[in-house]
Design brief:
heterodimer, A: alpha+beta, Four Helix Bundle (Hemerythrin (Met), subunit A), 4-stranded antiparallel beta sheet, 23 helices, B: mainly alpha, 6 helices, 0% strand, elongated
Chain lengths: 700, 156
């Protein structure tokens, strides 16, 4: 049986990981290269084994083996080949296999690197990777086994189990339930693997951090080795988040891209600590400070990654009772607590050794501003974490209220919702602070920046950027927060471009290069710095989109007869036609409307908002009709229609100013990350002679 | 006589107008008015979906309920209170600040302010020369004496 084969391979992989972890530990303790080599082989063996497991599962998915419960729950006869393959991550059990598979791929790639200079790290990196892997494999084996089959026992009832219960027969359903229609979208096909790749690759820097703590080699070597890993992890995570936003905008039909849903926040939290980490490691490299803090950040990131995987997959968010009932909750909770406590204990042991003998020279230095940046990121994390945890806590603490009547009013045990109003109010000032820092910090020098030198660097771009809110005011923007936000965006753009220009000019003068070549060489020589600046530009563009949709979104809704019209701002939408038909081979019923769009009375095109109803999963899906320009999006939803005559239909129209900049900014952001993370040649070339003027301006 | 007819005509006209005006004052609340309230409420059955965009039948009925209440002259606050009464505080986008919920609003600013304080203290100690200081982390340090001892041992 193929399912048995897959399960067997899964169990063997688990045993191999346990063995490898033990061998690595023993080898490190006894200082035995043979044991460590054996551990490394075990690590490398997990990848082909897990490839076998994943391929088996994919084979079952593609071959429509509905006797396997997972296959029946995520695929159906009407699904095309590529959706059946991607159904590997369409449900919880498959996602966990996918998680382990990529984890094993990344960890194997790491063990294949040249370890000559870092031999002492090797066993501990293997140990951490394999323990993490073994945990996820254990979850797959015990709780979320994708190879479980459907059996009918003698009493006639249906049982789902891995092995044949006595006197039972296998059930072969003729069709499956099919993938959640919301997930049948290109964005959703790429989005989860991107997030998972991001999650998984953050395990690597964590493994090195733990190796550094255990071995006592607490200089910044572990940071230098994992710098690129961290950037790659961050790249995938950012890509996953942006794609998720785009998917929500295209498919979920609520005119937005981010709803502060706990599942979104679960993926956002490791990104926050990861971003803080990316910034603060620079201080350790440049100034040899913040060693403790970097350890704390990477430990937090690792545990938030595990927490995120757990939150998105466990159902704990719907209710604490789901948490108590499923075995996955307590297991995850124990693993997170255990790794967190052990990591902090290791950190505590090395606390003294990590102390830096350098001082903070100025509150206006680059390093001080980076610290403020870290504080803001952590502040956002606190808001997010509390918003996710509090509803669960408040519900769980209900027992106090029911036990002590006097406290019944306080501990009501009621579930509460934390929606956008809570998060937006709490995080908006913190985000604004980050934007401001993004403008100021690049102008501050390491160490000896003073208020005066910083002020001298800031005032020019600061003044120039005032043009932006003035322009916005002339364009009828009156809200003070919007004006402030626009100013901040302008400020960052001016500073960043000014930095590029200043450095390129200096190079131009010293090397006689053309401006374009000078820019190219600059970015090539110090890719992390200039990649970072490109990322900043991307963030500001994204911020423009976010300000546009958050502060200036307008909407209207109305029920129209054929030929009727709805007006919103400069746009008029005319209801032209509606057709309702079945696409039986795809298993859905489609109601597709045609609306004509007029801008300032000029016809500009048609939109086709529609509602798909999937028979198998009995789920509707609202696909908007979107007219997208750099200035704004017109986003039309088909909300309802009269089923008998198709004469009247209800439409909801959103006007989303500037939202396209969110996606464009996302692309710039990803490009910047690629620039920063692009691999260097093994032996760095000797640094070219640079003018002191450039050095002074570009000390990164 | 003519005056009488004129007066009657005018009276009829006015009552007609008045009746029209009365009708105009009580139109069916528009979708936009309903959505303005629904936006602030969460679907009581679906996870984390605002009521104005929830595509389920149940939510369509809840929106109709809002429309009926509006038509009956209820205020926005009354309608929100009604939903809280019926389905619990989870229908609100942010929990009302009472009882345990106070913690929801107090904890993040307190933690952030604590961070600011720790950072400020950290920077001040850092600025004092020759005094190694720990960064803004609230992890308990291991034994001070052992740390110093090891530090000195390593210097040899």
């Amino acid at each position: 049986m193929i399912a048995n084969f897959g399960f067997g391979a899964l169990v063997i992989t688990f045993l191999v990981s346990l063995y490898g972890a033990a061998a690595a530990f023993y080898g490190a303790r006894k200082n035995s290269p043979a044991w460590i080599e054996s551990a490394r082989s075990a690590m490398l063996l997990t990848f082909p084994l897990l490839t076998l497991v994943a391929l088996t599962l994919i084979y079952l998915l593609v071959s429509a083996s509905y006797e396997v419960e997972y296959v029946a729950s995520v695929t159906s006869n009407s699904m095309p080949f590529y959706l059946r393959v991607t159904a590997l991550w369409g449900g919880q059990a498959g996602s966990l296999i996918f998680w382990s598979w990529t984890m094993s791929a990344f960890a194997s790639a790491v063990t294949l690197r040249n370890w000559e200079r870092d031999r002492e790290f090797l066993p501990w990196v293997i140990l951490v990777s394999l323990v993490t892997l073994a945990f996820f494999l254990l979850m797959s084996i015990l709780v979320e086994n994708p190879f479980e089959r459907i059996w009918q026992i003698s009493t006639g009832s249906i049982v789902v189990s891995m092995f044949q219960p006595a006197g039972s027969v296998l059930v072969f359903p003729s069709d499956g339930n099919g993938l959640n229609p919301l997930l049948r979208h290109p964005g959703m096909i790429i989005h989860p693997p991107m997030l998972y790749l991001g999650f998984v690759s953050f395990v690597i820097p964590y493994a090195f951090a733990i190796a550094a703590l255990v071995t006592g080699r607490t200089d910044d070597r572990w940071i230098r080795i994992t710098r690129r890993w961290t950037l790659v992890a961050w790249l995938f995570l950012s890509l996953g988040l942006v794609l998720g936003g785009r998917w929500a905008y295209d498919v979920l039909g609520w005119g937005g891209y981010w709803g502060w849903d706990p599942v979104e926040i679960a993926a956002f939290m490791p990104w926050l600590t990861g971003t803080a980490f990316l910034h603060s490691v620079v201080i350790q490299e440049k100034r040899n400070m913040l060693k403790h803090w970097n350890m704390v950040l990477i430990i937090l990131t690792y545990d938030l990654v595990i927490f995120g995987t757990f939150l998105t997959r466990s159902g704990v968010l719907s209710s604490v009772h789901a948490f108590a009932q499923s075995a996955i909750g307590p297991l995850f909770f124990s693993f997170i607590s255990l790794t967190f406590v052990i990591s902090l204990a290791l950190l505590g042991r090395r606390w003294g050794e990590l102390k830096a003998n350098v001082q903070m020279t100025s509150l206006f230095s680059r390093e001080a501003l980076f610290l403020v940046n870290n504080l803001l990121f952590i502040g956002i994390l606190v808001v997010c974490f509390w918003g996710v945890i509090f509803p669960i806590l408040s519900e769980a603490l209900g027992f106090i209220g029911s036990a002590i009547p006097a406290l019944a009013d306080t501990f009501t045990g009621q579930k509460v919702t934390f929606g956008p109003p809570y998060y937006e109010r709490a995080t908006a000032p913190l985000f604004a602070g980050l934007l401001f820092l993004m403008g100021v910090a690049p102008l501050a020098a390491w160490r000896h920046s003073t208020a005066k030198t910083l002020g001298r660097a800031v005032w020019k771009p600061g003044l120039a950027s005032l043009l932006v809110p003035v322009l916005a005011y002339l364009l009828d923007v009156r809200h003070w927060a919007a004006l402030l936000a626009f100013w901040l965006c302008g400020f960052v753009i001016f500073v960043t471009l000014y930095e590029f220009w200043r450095a390129a000019r200096a190079r131009q003068r010293s090397q006689g290069e053309s401006l374009g070549l000078a820019l190219w060489n600059l970015a090539g020589r110090n890719r992390r710095r200039y990649g970072g600046y490109i990322i900043h530009l991307g963030v500001v563009l994204m911020a423009l989109g976010i300000i546009g949709i958050e502060m200036f979104q307008t909407e209207t809704q109305g029920t129209l007869a054929r030929g009727g019209e709805l007006t919103l701002g400069r746009y008029t939408v005319v209801y032209n036609d509606l057709a309702v038909f079945d696409l039986l081979d795809e298993g859905r019923n489609v109601a597709r409307s045609v609306v004509n769009v007029y801008q300032d009375g000029q016809y500009v095109g048609d939109l086709y908002p529609r509602r798909d109803y999937y028979y198998e999963s009995q789920q509707p899906m609202t696909i908007p009709g979107v007219r997208s320009t750099l200035e704004d999006d017109l986003y039309v939803l088909l909300v309802d229609w009269q089923p008998i005559s198709t004469q009247g239909a209800t439409f909801k129209v959103y006007h989303n100013p500037l939202v396209n900049w969110l996606w464009l900014g996302g692309i710039v952001f990803i490009l910047g990350t690629l620039v920063a993370a692009w691999p260097d040649p093994e032996e760095p070339l000797p640094a070219p002679a640079r003018l002191p003027a450039v050095e002074a301006g570009v000390q990164s | 006589m003519r005056k009488f007819w004129l007066a009657t005509l005018l009276a009829l006209l006015f009552t007609g107008l008045a009746a029209n005006a009365a009708l105009a004052q009580q139109p069916t609340p528009s979708d936009d008015e309903v959505n303005a309230i629904a936006k602030q409420l969460y679907c009581p059955v679906c996870e984390n979906t605002p009521l104005d965009v929830c595509p389920t039948q149940a939510c369509a009925q809840w929106r109709e309920l809002i429309r009926e209440k509006l038509a009956a002259g209820w205020t926005e606050q009354q309608i929100k209170d009604y939903f809280v009464e019926m389905y619990g505080e989870r229908v609100l986008g942010a929990p009302p600040a009472r009882g345990l919920n106070w913690l929801a609003y107090i904890v993040p600013p307190v933690v952030i302010l604590a961070g600011v304080y720790v950072l400020w203290r950290g920077m001040r100690t850092w600025k004092q020369p020759l005094q190694a200081a720990s960064p803004s982390v609230d992890v308990p340090p291991s034994d001070e004496y052992v740390a110093r001892l090891e530090e000195e041992l390593r210097k040899r």
